[in-house]
Write a structure and sequence with these properties.
Strand content: under 5%
Number of strands: 0
Shape: globular
Largest sheet: none
Structural class: mainly alpha
Helix content: 55-70%
Length: 173
Amino acid sequence: MNIQETLNTFPEYAKDIKLNYSKIINENIFNQQQLYGIILVSSFATKMDDLVKAAFNEAKDIIDKTLIEDVYGAFSLMSMNAIYYRFTHLATENEYSNMPANLRMQYMNKHKMSKPDFEMLCLAVAIIMGCGKCINAHEKVLTENNITTQSIQAIARIASIVNAIANIMRLQK
């Protein structure tokens, strides 16, 4: 089952989620690889196995197989960074933000996709994980790479819709 098919099982109270997903799929803000990369990495961040399977089923013929590793790489890094950097901005008693992170992040420079595309994936995970410091850092890099505010907002919308899909799936279990 893919995400579209999963949405067809949703009850009436989730109609807004179904319509919003359909809207993001048809907006043409991103190319197909960017769009489905953001959807896939967002599904990883929800920690919902059934949604990850559905996202893979939907994206398998769209995302270049060589770029799937970059989706995993973005999630891998951000699942570490978003927790660490959220800690540094939430812990107010000490100067953790001024201390070196001492975290290896080599994949930030090893990915095959373009830098803006990789940053979009990172931003989506940061949004779902709720790390303001990461959100600001990736939003800044995207802006510096001429990604429009409309596109950045669309990443946030996609991440929020995918997160809502996972939550509705949890309710239906």
